[in-house]
Design brief:
The structure is a single chain. The protein is of the alpha/beta class. The chain has one domain: Alpha/Beta hydrolase fold, catalytic domain (Rossmann fold, 3-Layer(aba) Sandwich), CATH 3.40.50. Helix content is 30%, strand content 19%. The chain contains 12 helices and 9 strands. It has a 9-stranded mixed β-sheet with strand order 1-2-3-5-4-6-7-8-9, sandwiched between helices. Helix 7 links the parallel strand 6 and strand 7. Helix 6 crosses helix 7. The protein is globular. The two termini are 39 Å apart. The N terminus is likely disordered. Bound molecules: beta-D-galactopyranuronic acid.
Length: 409
Amino acid sequence: MAISPEAKRYTALFLTASFASLASFAQGAKGIPEPAGVPELMETFGGEKVDSVAKWEKVRRPEILKCFEEQCFGVRPEAVRDGKRISYKIRETNDVLGGKAVREVVDATYSGPCGDYVFTFVSMRPKAKKPVPVFLNFFLEKGDLAALTAAPDYSDPRWPFADIIARGFATVAISKMAIAPDDSATCFKKSIFPCVEPLSARTKSSWAAISSWAWGNSRVMDWIESRPDVFDAKHVAVVGHSRGGKTALWTGATDTRFAMVCSVQSGCGGAKLNHVKLPKSEHISQITKGFTHWFCKNYLKWRGKEFEMPFDQHMLAALVAPRLLVISSASLDSWAGQPGEWWTAKLAGPAWELYGKKGLEADAYPPVDTPQFGGSVGYFVRTGKHSITPYEWARYMDFAEKHGWKGEK
Ligand code: GTR
């Protein structure tokens, strides 16, 4: 994948910002900036109070979803709204991890109005006697699936499948590259997009990369559901780091079959609240310059207008209710705006309360490496920099087990 000069500048900016504030949040709770003017979660855009599950599910949830579609991630064309145009073929099956697990490489074919599109994903499951929960890894693998599919013993700390299998869970990984390449030059050309509709049909609210990646996650979910003999489709988590974390949130928002969503350092456009001043963090003006292909064009109009936005990321997070949600940050990752991520977790809580559940059970920003896992919304900040590590994976499995997910070896 060619990296544009713009993207290189952007990466440099990102690194500088991260290192400039090493100390900012290492010491914990006190002194995190307070948000101002946050849009009311439990009030409709028309000003009506939302005080019941019925009102939430019939009015507020759909209008928030529509708002994020039209203003942020884009609206999907009719021809990708369901999984009906897809077929799956297992290309390869191997025994892995000394015979403890089975690996399958799956080719999915989407037959669109404008052409066929084939994408591949990889599944690893323990040789268990009953169906097991699944952790879907939306993976930021850059090599167009080469590493994922090349060798059965492939290993990567960002996808510690041996640890996942050891706890009796299955895991499936799909690369962002499988659905749409991550650069504005080719994203809409050499991808799922032209098989769905002609490029000339695109408008300011058309779906973009993040929406297409989330769509891919849902198609993996279809496949998981089609294998009730081995997978427990009622317990599937979607995990994603950074741009993958934004994708994980949008996956959970648009597809309620996912029982758990894990957003890892997803920052701007993901879990970072906009209505809070965090000068060292990424803002909409920056993200839409470096990564125009992630969002719909309407999103550009919010550049520099964060405090005027009638919607914010706590509303996106609330779309996951009443299911499980973990938002996590890294101590050195101020570019992702850690306190803004905590505020999103906190302010989404009333959606869980409607269902008689608890959101984030915490009143202050936590010290590092101290998960706040009391409610159905969890939060933690890991010591270290912007990445997903086995630490994150272990915490997500802890959270799942705490909520009754059972592995089986
Ligand atoms: C950064 C970008 C973030 C984040 C990240 C990533 O450069 O500014 O929004 O998504 O990349 O995906 O690693």
